Amino acid sequence: MSARFAVYLAPEPEEALWHFGSSWLGYDAESRADLAHPDNARIASDILREATAHPRLYGLHVTLKAPFRLAPDVNADHIVPAVAELAERHRRFGPIALSLEARPAGEGRVFLCLAPSARSEALHALEADAVVALDRFRAPLSPSELARRNPGALPQKERRYLQTYGYPYVLEVFRPHISLTGPIAPDSPVHEALSRQLTEKPALALLNCISIALFEQPEPGARFHIRQRFPLRA
To answer: Alpha-carbon distance 100 to 113, whole Å?
Structure first.
């Protein structure tokens, strides 16, 4: 299968949230470098590395347009101007205050994420624009990709969005978040370690929305990296 692309909202590389979150995941999607986990996490690095394996694949981000393969008549050069135009239509906003949440991950497990403490209309408007305007570049889901989403278990609206936009959690069911772990046990020591980090430095949980980023996964199993950032300019 070919490369995949995604449009994400990622903290700016100079921001505290980017430095902390990338270190927490052990990967910087801007520089494409492996990073050491935080020295003060006070948890075994192998435990933290296992807990962060899934979000490390994608890099630190809020999803705007979920990962997709390109339609047959599309190449990466077609996407860049469209993402630039998207950025031109929206103005900078934030900072958005984030809170640590443990969200269900199935089979009695949870994943930890940072989510807006209050709804941001600007963020929801940006996501809706990205979902609809960029969908013309997306190849339809393959049968195996569709099956992995288990559409029969989704509510009707999410199932319809999966079929229409290739991802179920969009538009009015968009729940913005920055994933910081994959599925873990609810009583995992990772939860306490992350809570402690954010309590000691509350400024880490602030998201300034200055640019959007085109992420690329060059081949299946490879990590996503930032191909280009586009400043919000409206």
So the answer is: 6
Which amino acid would we find at residue 82? A
The single residue listed with the structure tokens 């980090």 is 197
* Cβ(70)–Cβ(3) below 8 Å: yes
Residue 86: which of 214, 227, 215, 224 has the closest Cα? 214
pTM above 0.90, yes or no: yes
What residue spans of 89-155 are helical by DSSP H?
Answer: 121-133, 143-148
Q: How many structural domains are present in the chain?
A: 1
Cα gap 159→157, rounded to integer Å: 5
Domain that holds residue 83: 4-231
pLDDT band for position 86 (50/70/90)?
very high
- Are 35 and 23 in contact by the 8 Å Cβ rule? The answer is yes
pLDDT at 1: 56
Tokens standing for 67? 């990962």
What CATH number does the domain containing 24 carry?
Answer: 3.90.1140.10
**Cα separation of the two ends of the chain:** 37
Q: How is residue 15 written in tokens?
A: 């921001």
